[in-house]
Amino acid sequence: MRELVVISGKGGTGKTSIVASFAALADKCVLADADVDAADLHLVLDPRTVHREQFSGGSRARIMPGHCTACGKCEEVCRFDAITYDGPGNGRISKTFRIDPIACEGCGVCAYFCAEDAIEFAPVVNGRLFVAETRCGPMVHARLGIAEENSGKLVSLVRTRAEAIAQERKLDLILIDGSPGIGCPVISSITGADHVLVVTEPTLSGLHDLKRVSDLTKHFGIETQVCINKWDLNEDLASEIETQARQRGLGVAGKVRYDQAVTRAQIKKKSVVEYARNGAASDIKQLWMEVSIAIAKAPSGVTARRYS
Amino acid sequence: MKIAVASGKGGTGKTTIATNLATVASRNGQSVVYLDCDVEEPNGHIFLKPEITHREPVGLLIPRVDEEKCTLCGQCGEICQYSAIVCVGQKVLCYPELCHACGGCWLVCPEDAITEVPREMGVLEAGRAGPIRFVHGLLNVGEAMSPPVIKAVKATAPEADLVITDAPPGTSCPVIESIRDCDFVLLVSEPTPFGLNDLKLAVEMVRALKLPLGVFINRADVGDRGVHSYCSQERIKILAEIPDDRRIGEAYSRGELICDALPDYTASFAALLQEVTQEEATFETHRPTEPACHKPVLPPGG
Q1: What is the ipTM of this complex?
Q2: Is the CB of A205 less than 8 angstroms away from the CB of B168?
Q3: Which residues of chain A make contact with B10, given a CB cutoff of 8 A?
Q4: Which pTM does this prediction carry?
Q5: Per-residue pLDDT tens for B128-159?
Q6: What would the 3-class secondary structure string for chain A be?
Q7: Looking at CA atoms only, how far is residue A114 from chain B in angstroms?
């Protein structure tokens, strides 16, 4: 079993459109959407949910106003400025302390030190995970609650579920749609994976972000290829990116031209290769051939330890 | 006034809007600070080309255990919610990359065996781009937690007529950290199904923070009318739109400001700035007087 993760560093370079096309082109695969705070793959693949579960990434503190004596210990020990003296009164005192659940990082230190046992500290549900069937195979996706933390843990859970499905159904490939950036959810989506495809664009921002994201995949020792999307928007910069990618030891798996069919396909809820034959669609087919050859050659690393 | 430029979806044009707004405001004579809070992939410097005059490492305080004093009581490991410090056998192990610096272990240690030492997680750089004061953060590659670096960027912001925060994409903790103290959130979207889906998530997030918001539609003539009808349904004001102009894309690709490369758009950015200022003032006069009680929003069943 192999895991291919599509990431980009910079957002909006076309990851999801490319993943949806790969899903249609791959013979048998499990899909995993690891962009848990703004997932979009389901908009194209029209999944039918067969299983859902709640995700708890940690606990959160809440002051029970009835028990609070307003001693102020909690505010003193909180490092996250999450506690303020503006909670409701309780008959004995006119104001109590209150915890802002958005600022709270769930460390539990306030609850530990509260002399009155007035702070409830319990696991919270901060996301949901879905297993679904699509026309391109089974898919695992998730949604982190708005303003929540622990996206990395939820991404790990998405990958674990996808792996179990792949094993159960004897599917060889897990195709993972990653998130932008180089932080927690991205690290979680690539650690232990076999192969990364970075989708970039011929802009100075694209080049800048490609450098940082390829430093990240190098840091974790993951075989990485690059794809230049909308390459014809700035041909000079596209060749500059190709040169710099090669200098960094990254393979250039392909270039996809700018094509309005990509947006039209999205509106029709189709992948580009299902919607059109020529233009970007044929570039993506070529790209997929290159990437699948590279994956077949890569040593499998699914057993490597996950980041958590 | 503090304006945050954010979006659920990446690549919608946050940095383009933020850097051009900063430039237009500063040319109007306002004192302007530009904060790039996308510390994972900051791009504002490519367009503003600041001269960096200040550089400092930023990070968190993590525990260091004095083995001489430690009695292996294990209380540090019990209080830690992040498994960043654990007592195994005859040793206390620390995992710095998991530590949130809550200080729990340090507070709870009965032997005073724990001291807190700084750990670098990124770098903060500040300087000037002409009259614009510029600050950005760079998360070290391989580092998972960006909020401490974002916090440092926000804390460095000097006072000014206008502070523009360029937020990272998404709707989770790094975005919250970037926008929570702002007066107004400008959400940048594009009229496509992905753009609409991610705009809805971003609107939910801004509403959970009880902040006023407005929408900017980029590449307004590509795609469909979904974003427009959503905004009118939700009574969200569309403050400005910019068409899909290949010249903008080309200027962007070369790292040029739109107000420099295509001066005919300067008026659009000036008008946007005025709209945002008016919207924020309207909200300010109708601001609820009771303290905002933030509730986390759970995702609905899908």
Answers
A1: 0.93
A2: no
A3: 8, 10-13, 38, 180
A4: 0.93
A5: 999 999 999 999 999 999 999 999 999 999 89
A6: CEEEEEECCCCCCCHHHHHHHHHHHCCCEEEEECCCCCCCHHHHHCCEEEEEEEECCEEEEEECHHHCCCCCHHHHHCCCCCEEEEECCCCCCCCEEEECCCCCCCCCHHHHHCCCCCEEEEEECCEEEEEEEECCEEEEEEEECECCCCHHHHHHHHHHHHHHHHHHHCCCEEEEECCCCCCHHHHHHHCCCCEEEEEECCCHHHHHHHHHHHHHHHHCCCEEEEEEECHHHCHHHHHHHHHHHHHCCCEEEEEECCCCHHHHHHHCCCCHHHHCCCCHHHHHHHHHHHHHHHHHHCCCCCCCCCCC
A7: 13
